[in-house]
Amino acid sequence: MAKYVAAIDQGTTSTRCMIFDRSGSVICFDQKEHEQIYPQPGWVEHNPDEIRSRTTEVVSGALRKGNINVDDIAAVGITNQRETAVVWNKKTGRSVYNAIVWQDTRTDKIIAELAKDGGQDRFRETCGLPLATYFSGPKVRWILDNVPGAREGAEAGDVIFGNIDTFLTWWITGGPNGGVHITDVTNASRTMLMDLKTLNWDDEILGIMGIPRQMLPEIRSSSEVYGSAIGALGGIPLAGILGDQQAALVGQTCFSTGEAKNTYGTGCFMLLNTGSEIIPSKSGLLTTLGYKLGDQPAVYALEGSIAISGALVQWLRDNLGMIEKSSDIEALAASVEDNGGAYFVPAFSGLYAPYWRSDARGVIAGLTRYVNKGHIARAVLEATAFQTREVLDAMNKDSGVDLTALKVDGGMVANDALMQFQADILGVPVVRPKVAETTALGAAYAAGLAVGFWSNLEDLRQNWQVDKTWEPQMQVDKREKYYGQWKKAVTKTFDWVEE
User: Fold this and answer.
1) Is the bond preceding residue 237 a cis peptide, omega within 30 degrees?
2) Interval 285-310: pLDDT, tens
3) Cα–Cα dist 432/413, whole Å
4) Which of 47, 88, 49, 262 lies closest to 176 in space, CA to CA?
5) Ramachandran category for residue 427: left, alpha or beta (phi over 0 → left; psi -120 to 50 → alpha)
6) Number of C-alpha atoms within 13 angstroms, CB side, residue 237?
7) In terms of Cα–Cα distance, which of 374, 370, 297 is closest to 336?
8) Contact between 107 and 133 (Cβ < 8 Å)
9) Quick one: how far is CA 32 from the chain centroid?
10) Pairing mode, if any, of strands 260-264 and 363-365?
11) H/E segment holding residue 241
């Protein structure tokens, strides 16, 4: 009898394969980074071939490190960076252009053109999303408009599109030799092309966007057997697909309406389970799919998306050389009592929730001669907590329910100082589970449920355990003063990019 489930976690900066047992514990994993390509300001790309080879390497690496026989694996699931668009030739498997990453802002002119008729919320009622450079539909349009032969190939049915989940699924199940061209509802809901109610591609939006329907993958549930893997996982059912933030929602077992989680990674993403109800946001949040398990009804969510959180720590490390490794920021930030009056708003790719301002760019505000690198490090960490507070306020407003605690996960939750400040600035407890790698775990859960490795959601709930809880300690008046200064700093980022 199979003992494990594997998950491929293809993220913005790296790819991992993690192997879990029945209790949801990590048995082993392998991880490799890939290159971040910046051809010009605001453009962010990845090489799809490099991502594919990294995926192959980490799958083999994880099996080797755990000394695991492939026959011990019940199923494999995929979770992925969501709005990153790949367009490739299905006969050769070659991408026609680099993957355009979710942070990329090159589609701002396409967005402005689309917004001329109906404004930023032109498609929101159908797809739950505002017009923004973030989503993958406009990126596909850019490739079709700018890469010679791409549109002709797409119209002929030879050139196809997918987010990273679709690209990897296609290769894992055979590539040019019978690979399945599919996506799940969570990834489809991030393209700006899917109708939230029908869970199908919307012909009207496709027509306006100029995207041929035949290049799009078939939309399936998040948990079912899609096909069999080839290569190192040869013969194992590929049975789960979830966009990374939805995977974390599942990994955190937020299966009840009103439960929420926040993932601290390259960006920061809070999701609130709204059950079978589609709640249109009036406060700058996204209405999105939470998950759909097999034949069960779809579960929806409200999401607050923050573009830059952990990426700001990397920027401090790589661009400024202020720290040697990312973990050094905690000690540097702890070298000072507070932020010294400095606030860092990292609008490198514009502002996401709740503002959706593609004209914004990053600022450091409140500088005096007193401010040193410790204060800057602290401001970098605090930026994530402040942005999360803005999203939580919007979520409380939209849902009409005040969150009483926040489940957290992702790389940054190892930083105790950040988590304490997060609890302080939110005024609610922050709870970290024992398995903080909930994104990969969610993909494993989706795959395992599809093949009966786990029987039901209650099995998964039993696995969830608290590791640590941070209670708010800051006085209310101090919290609101800090937050008021942050809100003022945010206004300084507006209108920076001119047409």
Assistant:
1) no
2) 999 999 999 999 999 999 998 888 88
3) 7
4) 88
5) left
6) 20
7) 374
8) yes
9) 18
10) unpaired
11) strand 237-243
